[in-house]
Design a protein that fits this description.
Layout lengths: L6 E4 L8 H18 L6 H15 L6 H8 L8 H15 L8 H9 L4 E5 L3 H10 L8 E4 H4 L5 H11 L6 E5 L2 H10 L3 E5 L15 E3 L5 H6 L2
Helix pairs in contact: 1-4, 2-3, 8-9
Length: 227
Amino acid sequence: MAKAGKLLFFDIDDVIFPSTEFSNLARRNALNAMIELGLDADYEKVARKLEEVIREKGSNYSNHFDYLLEKLGVEKEKRARFVAAAVGSYHNTKASIQPYPDAPFALLKLREKYPLYVASEGIAVKQWDKLICMRLALLFSDAFVSEDLGVGKSPGFYRKIAGMVGAKASECVMIGDREEKDIGPAKEAGWKTVRVRRKGAKYSEGKSSADAEIKSLSELAKALEKI
């Protein structure tokens, strides 16, 4: 049990890591790399097609670029070089990822008082990769990812995590940016919640049922004292 009676669970994307900003940059670099290698297509057209692919297949689909080229009518035997260019550029962008400037210091200070965990939806290897690339992995006692738990973010997801760490629901605090994934289901499971509204983030707008709201992790310590 935490010294102060709370265990903190963080979503990663647009909470610790500027996911919206990174995704836009990485995709732009990937598409430009394909065009520079000879893909005969207008950037805006390709960008719109990629958005269609992501909406259709989801963000965790592993063959976005190959499917994009299929939708653009590129012959199968000519796709490999473009996919290689896109993937290479995407990973070069990924190698330079950084957390939000306020995150490392805030997490270090919070760790002095509370156990820190990650509670995230997605593919476990990808989520751990983000934490490792940002050099934040060792700050967390563990990471609970939907792929490993076998359930998406829902009341059951949060109840399962509380059971795994041996905590009461009232001792658990979810810190996330999405009402429908991080806040609502966690509250239904009996957790306390903090909504993070980062400027420019994809899910920064809309109503919230969270117990507290913050704009950066530097505000979290004070918010926790009130809930």
